[in-house]
Write a structure and sequence with these properties.
Elements lengths: L5 H5 L10 H8 L2 H13 L5 H18 L2 H10 L8 H8 L4 H12 L5 H8 L5 H10 L6 H8 L4 H15 L1
Helix pairs in contact: 2-3, 2-4, 5-7, 6-7, 7-9, 8-9, 9-11, 10-11
Length: 172
């Protein structure tokens, strides 16, 4: 049976999202070093609630920064509940041009960290379905009904789902 990755163990701790050896290991070290440092600090009684929060944030920040490919985009979706605590890392990640960047932009959009009008203008005609989904989700302004309807028939399922969510929000 495969062992779960430490990021997936600590990510649930991030519902409480909010430096030192263990945090530096989480940010920059390898998994084996991180495990050793966590065990050492646990033995020494140094893992209090604040330290665990710092560690969880460091692991999540590293996951956001290093997320690549389809698995990386999925990780970014999973981290969406912690977007407020990871906004700086998400802003950096959203600057890239891959599907993970689009997921980071969607997370920022959900917490008000991305201007909706600019997102629509920038991504409505994107060749990437992931970025068109950002535009579709941002299209909640009253005058954007025709654009949302166009997104409803987009070939990319992510765009269609985002347009549906935007339409529901626009009616609220």
């Amino acid at each position: 049976m495969a062992r779960p990755r430490l990021g997936f163990i600590i990510l649930p701790l991030l519902s409480a999202c909010s430096s030192g050896g263990v945090v530096q290991a989480a940010l920059y070290g390898d998994l084996a070093t991180l495990k050793r440092r966590v065990q050492q600090e646990q033995r020494e009684g140094d893992l209090d609630e604040g330290r665990v929060r710092d560690l969880a944030h460091a692991v999540a920040a590293r996951e956001v920064r290093s997320a690549q490919g389809p698995l990386g985009a999925a990780r970014l979706r999973q981290a969406r509940p912690c977007a407020p605590a990871l906004s700086r890392e998400l802003e950096d990640r959203a600057a890239r041009g891959d599907d993970g960047a689009a997921e980071a932009a969607l997370s920022l959009l959900e917490i008000g960290g991305l201007d909706r009008r600019q997102a629509v203008e920038r991504y409505a005609e994107a060749s990437s379905g992931a970025f068109r989904a950002v535009a579709a989700r941002a299209a909640v302004a009253p005058g954007l009904g025709p654009l949302r309807r166009r997104f409803f028939v987009d070939p990319d399922e992510r765009v269609r789902r985002a347009a549906l969510r935007a339409a529901a929000e626009a009616r609220a």
